[in-house]
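Journal club side-thread
Mid-discussion, someone asked how the predicted structure for our own chain would compare to the paper's figures. Pasting it here so we can look after the session.
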Amino acid sequence: MQLKRALLLFSLSTTLLWPSTLFSQNTSNTFSYTFLFIDGKTKEELSLKIQPPYFRIDRPKELFSIIYNEREDSFVGLEHRDGRYWKFYWPQIQKAVQKTKESSYKIKSDPFTDPIEQSIEEVLNPPLSTHYGRFEPFNPPPQIPWEQSSLTRNSSYGELSQWIAKNTEGQSVCWLGSFSASEMQHWDQSIGKLRKVCQILSFLLGEYAWPPKALDLWSSLPKNLGIPVETYWRQENKSLQLFLIRKELLSNTTWIEPPKNYMIEELPLLEEYKNE
């Protein structure tokens, strides 16, 4: 009787555990997307890794990477030039910058404008309109209407369909490649989060980790249609382009942590916010 009971319990436990085991083995793949960014005569490779809750942007030319953990709302910046990294939690910074009048000025004014160049009226009464680099709220994804053209083209990623953005300065075009449904869903869900990451970094550090106009275009595209393989737009009378030149399947998650031989450091700029 005890033996039958033990076998029954083992059978039930196996039945209950099997679906979760099967699910864990079927988790979505992690891909690394490498783009070639062309800005006039300047060319730079940009790499994007997506495995929620982790996202990583690599800029090899700048010897810099950023890792974002959506669950913690945390950022890790890797400075590859000297083997160091820094880390901060956005909720901690977000609360700190709202405490003082000086911070109130910072979150309402243009972070790229030197206060010395402003009048006292502008300093005391900063504009409230939002734009890139402003604090809260960050500007939402633009509502750009898209229209599919009749043009298609073959590529190493299969057939691409051409989509043209309307009501933009100059013509913006995306060539979309069709990938697996789960991969395209992860991509669509990630672009909005990447916009937030780049806006926070722009506010704090004054630099974008990814071309902002590209994220604007990508976030406004219709969902579940594909991943941008080629993106063209104009900005300040210049033609800019992003090409997907490489897609790799990642076999591990070592990229979500700083290398073990990197040393942690504190950024003085971030310390200013932490101490408020």
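Post-session note: Residues 115 and 123 are 7 Å apart (CA to CA).
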